[in-house]
Specification:
There is one protein chain. This protein has 312 residues and is an alpha+beta fold. It has 8 helices and 11 strands. It has a 5-stranded mixed beta sheet, with helices on both faces. A 3-stranded antiparallel beta sheet has the order 1-2-3, with no helix packed on it. Helix 1 packs across helix 8 (298-311) and helix 3 packs across helix 7 (278-294). The radius of gyration is 29 Å and the shape is elongated.
């Protein structure tokens, strides 16, 4: 087997060295005898992404891919080492029949997109800023989420005859608080929620009042809970049209699956910073989880969320 020694195509010398790559990652060589540059092979590689790669704001050179993340791509300029990010899913404009809210400087689509990313994917505020590729402070995104969570409300569901009730514990500054949920049996949608300091019959009554106050009194409802006796006492004393059924601890899967998602959300956010925001976070979590069940496309979720805000 004969080894062929590569040579410079200009002078035929073998005295050359490697000298970087071109924009298609082809090796460039420099001949020390004739002082010229050349390539032994050339292939025009396909781009990893279809969108145009950004140019450096300082030297106007086309930037190269530096890091690829789940929701955005990090680009870097080889000349001045300037870095920037481009989201993988750029927001598409959605036509609405109303004007953006006056207290939002950005379009309402961007604000609703940030709201869904926060509760659906458990992203941090800075990660949402990188995904949307907007020039805004993470504190502003935090204010968007709190503002939206305070004005939206759950859908009013009809023809619901079987619900599951359960509660879970969250700790805020070494104090226990209880989050209560009512979840529909068939569709696994959250129909009511409540946050309380205590775990007794009065809190169960408040939870059930939030749901049954919007329904006809003569409608028969089946309530499925675990072994907490506060449910049975509250139903017997206050609700004649509710049939209570008790299941074993750990078999109330509709509520327990929601609480596992909520615990993941709390861990991702590293608990809460203010007590007054706990109810806002629970409300926003319940709304987005219902939208995830009802819609698969994020644009449809944003349109439905906008209609909730209008009717709230």
């Amino acid at each position: 087997m004969v080894n062929i020694q590569p040579k410079c195509p200009h002078c035929g010398s073998s005295n050359f060295i490697k000298n970087g790559h071109d924009k298609f990652k082809n090796q460039i060589f420099f001949c020390k005898d004739c002082k010229r540059y050349f390539k032994l092979t050339f292939t025009k590689k396909h781009k990893l992404f279809s969108f145009p790669y950004p140019r450096c704001v300082h030297c106007n050179h086309v930037m190269e891919i530096y890091k690829i993340r789940r929701y955005f791509v990090r680009f870097r300029c080889r000349k001045c080492n300037f870095k920037t990010s481009v989201p993988l899913s750029l927001p598409q404009p959605v036509p609405f029949n109303f004007h953006p809210f006056k207290f939002f400087r950005f379009p309402i689509y961007i604000v609703l997109k940030a709201f869904i990313l926060y509760f659906k994917y458990n992203l941090s505020l800075r990660a949402i800023k990188a995904c949307l590729n907007i020039n805004v402070s993470h504190v502003a995104i935090y204010k968007w989420i709190i503002k939206l969570s305070s004005v939206i409300s759950l859908f009013e569901f009809e023809n619901v005859f079987k619900v599951h009730g359960d509660e879970t514990v969250i700790v805020f500054r070494d104090k226990k608080y209880y989050v209560w949920l009512l979840v529909e049996h068939g569709t696994n949608l959250i129909v009511a929620w409540h946050v309380s300091r205590y775990r007794d019959m009065s809190q169960v009554k408040i939870l059930l009042d939030k749901y049954f106050s919007q329904r006809k009194q003569n409608t028969q409802i089946e309530l499925i809970t675990d072994g907490l006796k506060a449910y049975e006492i509250a139903v017997k004393l206050n609700f004649d049209n509710v049939e209570h059924r008790e299941v074993r601890l750990g078999k109330n899967n509709e509520c327990e699956s929601k609480f596992s998602l909520f615990k993941m959300f709390v861990r991702a956010k590293r608990s809460f910073k203010k007590f007054s925001n706990i109810r806002y976070y629970v409300n926003g979590f319940c709304v987005v989880r219902n939208l995830c069940k009802l819609y698969e496309n994020e644009n449809e979720m944003i349109t439905a969320l906008a209609s909730i805000i209008i009717t709230s």
